[in-house]
Amino acid sequence: MRPRTRELPRARRLPTAAGVTRTLCLVSVLAAVGLLPWLSGKDPALTVLRARSAEQEPTREALDAIRRDLGLDAGPLSLLGSWADDLLHGDLGTSWVSGTDVLPSVVAGLQVSLALMGAAFGVAVLLACALVAPVLVRARASAGAWAAMLAAVPEFLLATVALLVCGVWLGWLPTSGWQGPEYLVLPALALGIPAGGLLGRLVADALPAVLDERWVELWRGAGVSRTRVSAAALRRVLPPLVPQFGMVAVGLTGGAVAVETVFAVPGIGRTALGAAKSQDLPLLQGAVLALLLLGLLTGAAAAFTRRRLLGPALRDASLNLPPARPVRTHPAIPLTLFTALAVAIGGGLLRDPYAVHTADRLAASSWSHPLGTDALGRDVLARLGHGAAPTVGTAAVVCLLSLLLALALGFLPGVAAGAADIANALPPVIVGILVAAAAGPGTGGAALAVALISWPPLAAHAAALVQEVRASAFLTAQRAIGASPLWILTRHVLPSVAAPVARHALLRLPGIALALASLGFLGLGAQPPAPEWGLLLDESRAYVERAPWAALAPAVALALLAGLAVSGAAYAQGRKAVKETPVEA
Amino acid sequence: MSAPLLDARNLVVRYGTVTAVDHVSFSLAPGETLALNGPSGCGKSSTALTVLQLRRPDAGEVHFEGRELTTLSERELRPLRPRMQPVFQDPYGSLSPRHRIRDAVAEPLKVQGRWTATDGPARVAELLDRVGLDPSYGNRRPHELSGGECQRAGIARALASDPRLLVLDEPVSALDPSIRAGVLNLLADLQDELGLGYLFICHDRAVVRHFADRVVEMRDGRVSRP
């Protein structure tokens, strides 16, 4: 009774702090997009000159003329001002490379992408229904493990495997282009399956706890049919999950970049990536803006749906879901996955990843090359092993930085919540494209991009814990003995917050590694000849018919990482959570 | 009558539009037990928090050992805080679940700069012994203790600050009836021995009659019978 009333004024103040941060984050993202020509370290004038005419010498006069033409000499603020002004008049500018208007290209790309995302969303919903149905029918036992596995597979990996199996080996479906409905199937599957896994997992994880609630027993006792109980349970589960569904839809915009690239679909994602690589900044600005708008609209739609579903009950805290039960896996599974990865990496580290054997190009596996060789005759096992450091090592650094930032900012709950909202609306790929456009592609840029969006969820978690600890009676007792705020912070608040947030960060490590790999795969991260896993997968795609093992090795390594992310999750949630879960035969 | 240890004058506490404590006044002499008695929700606990200055009153004054506390800043208040210690209702919630009992009892000594490597551990053992806990309990954590043992540890921690006043916020309400008497007897012995003043907050009239020197009845935020 007492703590609740005391929290009232704080709760009333919070949304404004979060709102301010949200607006600030959004404005700074928009400003970053608008300032791209100025942020970009490379001279855009050179890009434009080269695109306009191959013969013209890059003389000082010619470059100055172009700078004046583009308004680059006026400084960042006026550049931003004129960009925003044009934007408000519906003018997205002219492409530096093709010289055509940006708006039609963006609209054309958006149409293709929306069709693809719509189809993918259909796949996702169907898959989610298939995953949830057994939970409802048996009223127990979660399909969560399978769903979680599917959800953890990154789109670029699934796209590559689908291309390899269905397109190339079986020859069932076309693998590149956009000429008819049959071209939609593979991209929609690659994009929809991870999303469906995530949707299914969210619902399947939440359902068993809801079906254990007392009203279910009561309804069953009163002879209510199983169908009606199931419908009511779904109705109970869905509203709190709707914001997460919005995040799934946002994830589709990020996944679309990779999938469109793999299947050569002329969508908005591929347009953005191409523009980033060719330094065509106006086109990039337009495409990124369209992707951001798509993400924000889905988020708003999700919030609106939730309000409609809940109505006046929205403020009732009792409508929160009971805590989901963690996915149960035998401890041997993460251990096996970890051992397999460690053995492959250890074996690879003993070999030279850069040694070129011209005689053994695209060789199959043999004693001298256990996983075969790539197009330059380099040992695949060696590249896999040495690739672990740039992939997993960078992810560990990103993780640690995010953790430190989260702990520092967790004491400002409004800031953490607001930043988390915006970060959730930004897929890593889009941030990666922006950073790569500004700083050029590289491991540092990719790490920065992933770090930018991986700290806010951790900070939000830390903020929630800080509030919980601050409300507890033993902190009041601390003040009563005359302890200073610093003593309370360092001896009591920080120790109770740091451990769970660190576990959460560790849990996100494989996901961060996969995000880095997807940037590497798209050419936005590590550059050749570095043996980064995403890059390995990308390089081997061209020879996939002749040397499938070169593509399969990094694909399997990434899949193992994804599996580790899921099966390790239950253990990362703390001993208590595992102990309370009855072991099922 | 000697100068009062605690003198609360016209205390007012508001939560939003609700007035939880409405012009409550009382005073307490050294070594005396004053009970604040009343049904739940009548403002007893808010009064206790205000006396301890863990929540600042919206109006009124708190005089403790002759000093007015409500006008002091948090920093000025800090050296005075050890003189008045709370004992809360929930024995488990008032001790950090992460710390051993020994560390919880030693913490006031450390915070107040009275800890030395030679005397500190001996003082902790003495305090645990004084509240009837075997010093070996120092190694345990709160969840490894029973409610009554935990409340005794809480009292030991409060005594570590060498207080003159204990604010006992329903100290036995959460305990099993069979062990209430033990804790109450301990409190009575400590009062005789150390001359402590007790502000005893309770809703059980039988306990109040047995334990308190004087009773202030509260109802709907007001003193109903002085």
Automatic annotation (TrEMBL), chain B:
Keyword set, alphabetical order: ATP-binding, Nucleotide-binding, Transport
Presence of keyword Nucleotidyltransferase: no
Pfam families given in the database record: ABC_tran
Keyword ATP-binding: yes
InterPro entries: AAA+_ATPase, ABC_transp_ATP-bind, ABC_transporter-like_ATP-bd, ABC_transporter-like_CS, P-loop_NTPase
Domain ABC transporter, chain residue ranges per copy: 6-226
Similarity section: Belongs to the ABC transporter superfamily.
Protein name: ABC transporter domain-containing protein
